[in-house]
Amino acid sequence: MSKLVTIYGGSGFVGRYIARRMAKAGWRVRVATRRPNEALFVKPYGSVGQVEPIFCNIRDDASVRAVMQGADAVVNCVGTFDKGGRNSFEAIQNIGAGRIARLAAELGVGQLVHISAIGADAGSDSIYAQSKAAGEAAVLAAFPTATILRPSVVFGAEDQFFNRFAGMARLGPILPVVGASTKFQPVYVDDVAQAAVAGVLGKGSGIYELGGPDVASFRDLMTQMLAVIQRRRLVLNIPFIAARVMAFGFDILQAVTLGLFKNGMITADQVRSLRRDNVVAPGAKSLVDLGVTPTAMAAVLPEYLWRYRPSGQYAAIKDSARNLRKS
User: Fold this and answer.
1) 90 CB neighbour count, 10 Å cutoff
2) CB-facing half-sphere around the CA of 50: CA atoms within 13 A
3) 8, 32, 48, 57: which has the fewest C-beta neighbours closer than 10 Å?
4) Can you give the residue ranges of every domain in the chain?
5) How many whole angstroms separate alpha carbon 317 and alpha carbon 2?
6) pLDDT per residue as tens digits for the range 24-55
7) Going by C-beta distance under 8 Å and a sequence separation of 6 or more, which residues neighbour residue 47?
8) Could you give the 3-state DSSP secondary structure of residue 278?
């Protein structure tokens, strides 16, 4: 019988790519998710019955254990941007990560891959970064041979980075950003998936920082994105002091409305995170150490950002017609 991998958060942005690659490699894939009925799209990743979504709440020992039974490997992709509530940074990225690692060790799972993030630092002033670091520590304490992957900002068809700002660029002549000079090293989602598969197959252990071949400031990333979607916009940097005031106001509004208003703009913790570069540290183990060749943004962005162009899918046809008229 083929081997079994349980992927916590396997229907999420990164998790679905890992699930697809594991199925392609011949593994049975158990996709652990809070909403299995919304994860049915993963089933065609493999043959009938090869990929199955199943309910799991990583805040509950019994639930985590149930979907891990019989697994040869485990991948944890679960993360959150919610500071408070039941699914907070602490509950998901620290306690939840530690729970998965502890139970994996108890059940004798062979390999554990944990998805963290570049910037994970117990000494950071960002609560998000602190929780990521605490989660890594909990994982390694319970499962010392785990493979920990720290990606920079992840891009791909379903991302919440380029898609978000490309959508904003359609609304007006100004594209506001916080931390325009902060550097990022975007990594393609399928490269992260390949790295996770390498970890599952025992090709590495320890901490790896994942970044693509392109290092650029936030402003330059937006400029590249605007070129792809063929729109001219002024990329306006919002000073950190102004961003802090805005974020504080949004956070307060969310608190006083008891969550009826969801701060999807920017939080105070995100402002703190944006003060630090998000790139692979010198000397860190990286994608190439796992046998993965990083994919350039230019090779992928046009494949999914075309829908934000003024003419959408017809942009190439209009360009071709324009060239015909010139000739």
Assistant:
1) 17
2) 18
3) 48
4) 4-154+187-211+279-293
5) 47
6) 999 999 999 999 999 999 999 999 999 999 99
7) none
8) strand
